[in-house]
Amino acid sequence: MSEDAAAVHPDEPHNPNIASRLNWLRAGVLGANDGIVSVAATVVGVAGVTNEVPPILTAGMAAVVGGAVSMALGEYVSVSSQRDSQRALIAKERRELAEDPELELAELTGIYRAKGLSPETAKQVAVELTEHDALAAHLSAELNIDENDVVSPWHAAYASAAAFAVGAVLPMLAILLPPAAVRIPVTFVAVLIALGITGALSAYIGGSSKRVAAVRLVVGGALALAATFIVGRLLGASGVV
């Protein structure tokens, strides 16, 4: 990126890896949301049956550990598949460049012509990019891949588990610290405020409406908490548990 481009639009993210970084940040916020909602729903459901700390703490810790492991495993499997696909595409492009560079140059020229450049300009751009770094030019133009920015499944797994655990801290503290008589309302209020904040933050990262995102998460979280609390109360009243 040139200094002139940054000077013209100083508030715009010109870093070539900004999309990847924003995706990671957004994933972290969503992971925290999962931790908040799922653990809060679990402990509120148990609190609907009993106000005793040991069963609430046991259920909450089980939800934290199980949820974090599940999130990490899901991210690892998903990102591993994405990484394998990226590596296969990079290897294929490298092989094609070695076997028929002229055909690849013509292909790159065609891509830039399709984007609106004149035949002469498209050919010049393709030639100069090929001379600079042929593989990078083709990966970027054809596949929107950066060879040096292949995703790591381990990083994704760690980040997802950590985000979930961080989000889970709030409902655990909210249900355990207050007196028994106000545990559930305190947890409801704390969780819904946190969801409103994280919803607005995720919308800010994505450039969408903060109010809409916050309301969506707050309503969804309220429904989840109400549903699990009602189930817990019904099971407790029925004598099943």
Which features characterize this protein?
elongated, 8 helices, mainly alpha, single chain, 241 residues
3D structure, described in words:
The protein is an all-alpha fold and 241 residues long. It has one domain. The protein is built from 8 helices and no strands. Helix 2 packs parallel to helix 6 (153-176), helix 3 (53-99) packs across helix 4 (101-114) and helix 6 packs antiparallel against helix 7. The protein is elongated, with a radius of gyration of 25 Å. Residues 1-14 have low confidence and may be disordered.
SSE order: HHHHHHHH
What number is the mean pLDDT? 84
- Structural class, from helix and strand content? mainly alpha
General form: elongated
- Strands, count: 0
Parts with pLDDT < 50 across at least 5 consecutive residues: 1-14
Strand count, sense and barrel status of the largest sheet are: none
Compute the CA-based radius of gyration.
Answer: 25 Å
The total count of helices amounts to: 8
Distance between the termini: 63 Å
